[in-house]
Amino acid sequence: MFQSIIKAVFFGNYFYGICAVALAIEASLQQNYSLNPPLFYVLVFTITVWFYTLAYIKDPSIKTSRNPRTRWFIQYRVYVLYSQRLCLISSGIILLYFLYKYRIGLTGISKGQLWPLLLTPLAALLYYGLSFLGSFNLRRIGWLKPFIIGFTWAGLITLTPVVFYHISHQTNQSMSPTGWWLFLKNFMFVSVLCIMFDIKDYASDANHNIKTFVVAKGLRFTIFSIIVPLTLAGMASFLAFAIYNGFSVTRLLFNLIPFLAMILVAYALKQRRTIFFYLTVIDGLMFLKALCGILAYYFDSTHLR
Q: Rounded to 5 degrees, what angle do the CA atoms 53, 54, 60 make?
């Protein structure tokens, strides 16, 4: 029973929804904003789960795949379809409610607040949505797809919570320098995780002629010349930002943990790993990052409330 629940959480993409909510909370706190209403985070969860699951149920190769994750989708197809409907209906109802409740704030939205709301779903469509229509598909550009996913996640979890806060409070304020730096940090963090995840799909991507980093350059080059250097660069930029802004030692140490964990996981990828390793450990780095950011906020006595 417990094993079935765990599989449902990770194979059913509910863990992605949990990570999205946790990262959105972290982003608000690290930018010194109050949290949005609970319904906002329900919307983030349902949209994330619906979108990630849509890619699987629309995949024409799902019936012939031997991947444990896709086999789970076949076995629980009826449940997945009901879950998709529930997520889509819930998202639609919440969106309509927000449009009505915050209609005054929406009329005063500035261009600086509007474009993050538009670019994030556009990037998602260019990655997956348009491919369902047999049209332009950025996913096939192997080296680019991790960064498209990273941009989409960064927009959803970093920019959207702040823009929603300003709309709901009827304020017209642009993103702060801290907000833009956090956007870049989340963008690079998720992008590196996606490069790690491409290692799992090496055989499939090679067969479909998708030139991901690992397909084009090999495993060792990807780990030691791309993943580790990008992680170290991110760590160095964070240290510079933290020192410049006078972060406390507590806040600095908490925020360093995800970078160190990412390097350890990168070294672990030298050996062949199961799909569950990627879903729990690699994707788990997103939740770890959110947790460390939240703890850094609450244990840092110098943060602004």
A: 110
pLDDT: which is higher, 137 or 146: 146
Residue 39 CA, chain-centre distance (Å), reads 19
pTM given for the model: 0.90
* Euclidean distance between CA atoms 43 and 121, whole angstroms: 14
For the segment 58-91, what is each residue's pLDDT rounded down to a tens digit?
A: 665 555 566 788 788 888 889 999 999 999 999 9
In whole angstroms, give the CA distance from residue 276 to residue 282. Answer: 9
Which residues are within 8 A (CB) of 141 and not within 5 positions of it... i.e. 6 or more apart?
Answer: 211
**Cα separation, 261 vs 269, whole angstroms:** 13
Q: What share of the chain is helix, strand, coil (3-state, %, to 5)?
A: 80, 0, 20
127, 148 in Cβ contact below 8 A?
yes
Distance of CA 17 to CAs 10, 69, 138, 202, Å?
10, 17, 23, 25
How many angstroms separate the CA atoms of 304 and 28, rounded?
Answer: 12
Looking at residues 294-303, what average pLDDT do you find? 77
Amino acid 305: pLDDT: 43
Contact by Cβ (8 Å): 172, 124? no
d(CA 303, CA 133): 47
**123, two tokens:** 């990037």
Terminal-to-terminal C-alpha distance of the chain: 43
